[in-house]
Specification:
Residues 10-82 form the ABM domain. The protein is of the alpha+beta class. The protein has four helices and four strands; from the N terminus they run βαββααβα.
């Protein structure tokens, strides 16, 4: 699902990852992280997709760099990141950028 974000500027955290072997704990942990992130001040939304080959991209949107850092340092999020390094991911990259412009198209908006 496409995230609903406010008018720019805001920030995007882009998490690209390659999963390893399937682990039933992963889905539960991912749901818990989304639940926690939604409660964080400055959280604006998220978009996520994962292919059958295990490659995935999750983009979370935040109001400020301070909000991103607060989320990064959240104790439960930190613990899950460590579990990801140890058990779930073959590799990952995290990128943070400022969204200066955003464009959208929706056929319903054209009606």
């Amino acid at each position: 699902m496409i995230g609903q974000t406010p008018a720019p500027p805001y920030y995007a955290v882009i998490f690209s990852s390659q999963r390893g072997a399937a682990d039933p704990d992963y889905d539960q942990a991912a749901e818990r992280m989304l639940e926690l992130a939604r409660r964080q001040p400055g959280f604006l939304g998220v978009e996520s997709a994962r292919g059958a080959d295990g490659f995935g991209i999750t983009v979370s949107y935040w109001s400020s760099e301070a909000a991103i850092l607060a989320w990064k340092h959240h104790a439960e999020h930190s613990a899950i990141r460590e579990r990801g390094r140890k058990d779930w991911y073959q590799c990952f990259h995290t990128r943070v950028g400022k969204v200066e412009r955003a464009y959208a198209f929706s056929p319903q908006a054209q009606a």
